[in-house]
């Protein structure tokens, strides 16, 4: 027996379709696709660079006389190193989509998923902190530029904005690290806490 859709279900579907087809909805979908494609191309590029580097994990084990050639072949088969580049990449991608398995780190001998989960909190903290700091600076300056439109202040802020957009972010990061190094311990450059954090109250 087919269920007759209720009015609330129809209203929800209409609202959802309107949201998807609106400018905001299309913009969100476009940005999500851009993010997925960026991650995909970044993973392909990283994979190719790693493959172009001489040697692999098994080559280091070959130097150990205690490991037999048969064991080397078993490890190659286990890690898929006997496959072509394309097969290795698509096998890795398939395991991510089907099992959420990013593989095992040869360096740490642990699951890559666990290693990512341990570090993602620090990454998110850094990302949200930088976003908050960016907004805290950009919004007041944007208001000032709007109030003083076509004025000397507005033109100076426009020049600073253009320089900031055109300047490579990694150079800015290096300059900020140099500044932090000079002003240490005011801005410590290592670790998640201040040098004397154990002596401080909450």
Q: Going across the biggest sheet, name each strand in turn.
A: 1-2
What is the succession of H and E elements? HHHHHEEHHH
Oligomer: single chain
Radius of gyration over all CA atoms, rounded: 26 Å
Specify the structural class: mainly alpha
Total DSSP E strands? 2
Largest sheet: 2 strands, antiparallel
Number of domains: 2
Helix content: over 70%
* Number of discrete helical segments: 8
Give the arrangement of secondary structure elements:
Layout lengths: L6 H15 L1 H30 L4 H6 L6 H11 L5 H15 L4 E2 L4 E2 H36 L4 H15 L2 H15 L19
Antiparallel strand pairs: 1-2
Helix pairs in contact: 1-2, 6-7
Folded structure, characterized:
- With 202 residues, this protein is mainly alpha-helical.
- The protein is built from eight helices and two strands.
- Strands 1-2 form a two-stranded antiparallel sheet.
- The longest helix has 36 residues, at 112-147.
- The model has no long low-confidence stretch (mean pLDDT 81).
Q: Could you provide a short overview of the structure?
A:
The chain contains 8 helices and 2 strands; from the N terminus they run αααααββααα. The protein is an all-alpha fold and 202 residues long.
Q: Can you tag this structure with a few keywords?
A:
single chain, about 70% helix, mainly alpha, about 200 residues, two-stranded antiparallel ribbon, 8 helices
